[in-house]
Amino acid sequence: MNVGDRHYRTIWLSDDKRSVEIIDQRWLPHEFRVERIGTVDGIATAIRDMWVRGAPLIGVTAAYGVAIQMLDDPSDEALDAVWESLHKTRPTAINLRWALDEMRRSLKPIAPAQRAEAAYKRAAEIADEDVGLNRAIGENGLAIIKEIAARKKPGEPVNILTHCNAGWLATVDYGTATSPIYLAVEAGIPVHVYVDETRPRNQGAQLTAWEMAGHGVPHTLIVDNAGGHLMQHGDIDMVIVGTDRTTANGDVCNKIGTYLKALAAADNDVPFYVALPSPTIDWTVGDGLTEIPIEERSGDEVSLVWGKTADGKIAQVRVSPEATPAANPAFDVTPARLVTGLITERGVAKASREGLKAMFPERG
Ligand SMILES: CSC[C@H]1O[C@H](OP(=O)(O)O)[C@H](O)[C@@H]1O
């Protein structure tokens, strides 16, 4: 997407053809910082500490981590070791495992001497594929926005609520949940986005709001707990969110708080859509609630908040007593029964095993 008058992806190969450069998302919206990473440990840190985050972007970043490892040691043992070390950085987003599996699958048959070149090629392909998948998701989601727009008074915006950041910052470009929004703006369809701040790390307030502002999308920041109230008063026409892992049954694992939005949407007959590229589907899992590992992050993310001080410094402040412990489950699972549809690159699937098999028959 464009930052000012320059187009950026969230990750790209450095001139040294070894390192990658990433937008360090911890400093947005206050500072736009690019970091160069040239070691596997650096890649692991960037994923674990959320310099980069978002399921598809985590996967692409890990793919480049494998490529860096192949430059240093292309042996089978090193390939297996880097799979393990990067896989344990964050447990929930399936794209991480998907990308690591895809890199190992593509590299194992190749002679070690040729693996580095092949690894960088495959990592670049995965990044390019993500952009294409997200653009297709946008087209399929745009059709839904158009249907809703046709039922509104001329000029009245389609009011969309989104949670966390499933934007271009969560992917290589376009985003998943935001892709239909961007295409709607490009098509001249009036939209307005309610942006959930998304405690505790405020991906909505810090990242989605930054994206919306940068792309000229009318938007309003709200606290996470306001969504139900707005739905009760008819202020939300649709909800669209991303996902870190969707099961073969259509259960959706996403940022903590998503489930509560789905409950409010169901209670107010507001359509609740999930945008996802097919690598985010975990075909090996049926029941999301019992089978998806939910990342428990540090309670400090709840007790301490980053922001910009009046004198322009970026600092952390404590919002709770020192002695108060904090729990921080980073994701929750929305049962398929609460999901109106899964917006994939191939079309909108019913949130069910049958619906996903119909969309992806090759997955049998
Ligand atoms: C398109 S995946 C976006 C997904 O990832 C976010 O989690 P995190 O910021 O912790 O990586 C959130 O669940 C988003 O919906």
Automatic annotation (TrEMBL):
Record's catalysed reaction(s): 5-deoxy-alpha-D-ribose 1-phosphate = 5-deoxy-D-ribulose 1-phosphate; 5-(methylsulfanyl)-alpha-D-ribose 1-phosphate = 5-(methylsulfanyl)-D-ribulose 1-phosphate
List of catalytic residues: 244 (proton donor)
MF terms in GO: S-methyl-5-thioribose-1-phosphate isomerase activity
Binding site for substrate: 53-55, 90, 203, 254-255
Coiled coil residues, start to end: none
Domain of life: Bacteria
Annotated pathway: Amino-acid biosynthesis; L-methionine biosynthesis via salvage pathway; L-methionine from S-methyl-5-thio-alpha-D-ribose 1-phosphate: step 1/6
Entry keyword set: Amino-acid biosynthesis, Isomerase, Methionine biosynthesis
GO biological process, one term: L-methionine salvage from methylthioadenosine
Site (Transition state stabilizer): 164
EC number from the UniProt entry: 5.3.1.23
Enzyme type, top EC level: isomerase
Record SUPFAM superfamilies: NagB/RpiA/CoA transferase-like
Protein's job: Catalyzes the interconversion of methylthioribose-1-phosphate (MTR-1-P) into methylthioribulose-1-phosphate (MTRu-1-P). Also catalyzes the interconversion of 5-deoxyribose 1-phosphate and 5-deoxyribulose 1-phosphate. Part of a bifunctional DHAP-shunt salvage pathway for SAM by-products.
UniProt record similarity statement: Belongs to the EIF-2B alpha/beta/delta subunits family. MtnA subfamily.
NCBIfam families: eIF-2B_rel, PRK05720.1, salvage_mtnA
HAMAP family hit by this protein: Salvage_MtnA
Record protein name field: Methylthioribose-1-phosphate isomerase
Organism name: Mesorhizobium neociceri
Gene that this sequence comes from: mtnA
